[in-house]
Amino acid sequence: MSAGSVHGRKWRAPARVSLKPSISGTPQRTNAQMPVKSLLTVDPKKPPWEQSPPLHNRWHPAIPPVATVEEGEIVRVEMVDWTGGQIKNSDSADDVKNVDLTQVHYLSGPLKIPTAEPGDLLKVEFLNLGPLPGDEWGFTGTFHKDNGGGFLTDHYPEATKACWDIEGVYCCSRHIPGVRFPGLIHPCAEQRLLSNPRLQREL
């Protein structure tokens, strides 16, 4: 799983996520007495390749799972932001301007569900989602026209950044006063056939 991202707007949100997978079509009900297993942890002060296990940055079926989750189990998964810590909680946008886009989109996992088979519909309930203690902030920004650019590069050629303080599901920014809004997440689908040319080039 990764922190949510849209080109030009990026969240830095190391998160703790409680996952409860279900393969059947019957909704799983959370039992308050069920234990939560800490499955994957991260240290926000370390780069992605020094995490244990190391993080990855692509959706590909050739990447082996690093942990197993049983159907109905509740687990906690931690993750770093999509840049692997390149963007800082500062008033300068130089880090966005000079971000290394070959080292981005870091993900925790993959996770294996032993009872899942090809064609199954996997339901995952997010029971809790939030920043790690001491790291309660995120950012939005636009890339510099010479480093990534964006859909509106002609109108916004320079790098910009706004840092956001996260409070519960809401955030506010010292760089954009008077704005307060809830965060969002999104799923990502994966092609499973290694014969797919788009997957071959990622090997």
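[next item in queue]
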Amino acid sequence: MNVCPRCDLEGPGGSRELEFSKEERRQLRRLSGEAHERELGEALEALEGEFQRWRAGEIEAWELGERIHEFHDGESRRLFNLYNRAKDPELVARAIGLGLIDGASLAPGLLRMLEPWIGFYQNG
């Protein structure tokens, strides 16, 4: 996982951590969940293509089984680790930066707080 050097999220040596209200934390948690759902859904759509190839007789069942195994050990695990280890503010900023969710869905003050993170993911 990339950690934004300007975010003060996990920096060593006394870096500050942003303070969020209870409502902001709730909103961040909800949006983080939405981002996870969308990103996992996109990954599953690619896997669905393999099911279609199998149904069309283009690949054998064992090949489909291998693709499922690769998905589970690869992209699915990567997303699980990302969304279970990173903090909600960074996940939401990442999702906005990658275009998974719209920044307009955040309260303006919260959006301002996340702007350095968003910029990091948009430019990185």
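[queue empty]
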